[in-house]
Task: structure prediction
Amino acid sequence: MMEVKIFDKHQSVFNNYIAAHPAGDLLQTTFWGQLKSTTGWQPFPLAVTKKGQIQAGTLMLKRSVPFLKHSIFYSPRGPVFSSLEALKFLIEAGVDLAKSHNALFWKMDPAVISTNLAWNQLSTQLHKINTGLDFNSVQPKFIMELDIRPSLETILANMKSKTRYNIRYAQRRGIEVYLSNSKSDLEIFYPILKETAVRDGFTVRSFDYFENLWDCLVVPKLARLFIAYYKNQPLSGAIAFRLGRRAWYVYGASSDAKRNLQPNYAVQWEMIRWAKGSGCHTFDFRGVSGDLNPENPLFGLYRFKEGFGAKLIEYVGEYDLPLSPLYKLWQPAVTAYNYLNQTFKR
Result:
C-alpha cells in the first residue's frame, strides 16, 4: 500500500532518492528548497512510499500571490518517479496539498526525455505550456549533455578539433583555473557576471542570492565556483552543481578583457575534469535553443556546447495543473507582468 509523506524531517532520505534517480536534479532537493526559502518560497518535499521505500517524490515550492488570497506551486525539474502508479499517487497528493493552500495551479517541468511513455500517458491530464524553441520556459526544454564516463583522453579526442585547440591554447597562454574555497571569491565572480549580463542582455540575481547559494549549496559540496585567471587578472568564471552521477554548468561569466586567450574553454574543461573526478557520469551544459538553424542568434551557444562533444536532449517541457477557475485569468498576467522573470526566476 502506498503512503504519502512530507519529508520535513529525515530530509536525507528524500534527497538520497532524488540523487540516485536517473532523472534526479539538484533543483528537486531540500537543499534547493532551503535556498529558495531565502527568496520567498516555502518548500514542501513530498514523497510517496511503499513498504518504507520512496517510489516518487517532488519538491513543491509555494509562493503567495500578492494582493490575492491565493498561492502558486512549482516543482522545478520535478516530479521524479519510479513507476506510473507512484506518479499518479504523487500527483493526487500534490493536488491535495496545493489546494489546501488555495493554489491557482501547480507548475512542473521534469527532467524526463520527451519520449517517456509514463509521463506522456499522465500528462494528458495537464495543461502543456507552449514555450517555443528558445528560452521562454522556466527551465530549458532543450539541453546539451556530455557522457564523461570515458577517460579524459577519450573525452578530449571526441571534441571538435577547434574546441580541443582552444582548450590547449588557453593552457599554453597561461590561463589558470582555480576551484574556489573562499566565499569572498564571489566578490570576484559577481562583477564579471554583471558585465556578462549587460553585454548579453539578461538579468542577474542579487549578490545576496549568490551568498545564500554558497551557504546552501557550496558548503555541503553540491556546487563549486571556478575562476579563470591570466596572471592575476580574473577573466572568466562559472558555478557548477553536482548531485549523484550528474553535474550541471549553471552560471557562466566572462569579461570582455583578453577573450582571445579562450578562458571560457579552460573553465569548461576544468569543470568537466572536476565532475569526472567527483564520480559523475554526465556533464549537463544546460540550455540551448531547439532551433538549430545557423541563422538563429542562439545557434552559437549550441555550437559552443556541441564542440565539447555534448548531445542535444529534448525534455517533455513545461506543464501546469490548474487548480482554480482563476487560472484562466493568470495566463494573460504572465505576459503582462513578465511573470517568468519576476517570479519563478527570482
Summary: The radius of gyration is 20 Å. The chain is about 35% helix and 30% strand. The chain has two domains: 2-131+316-344, 143-313. The chain has a mean pLDDT of 93.
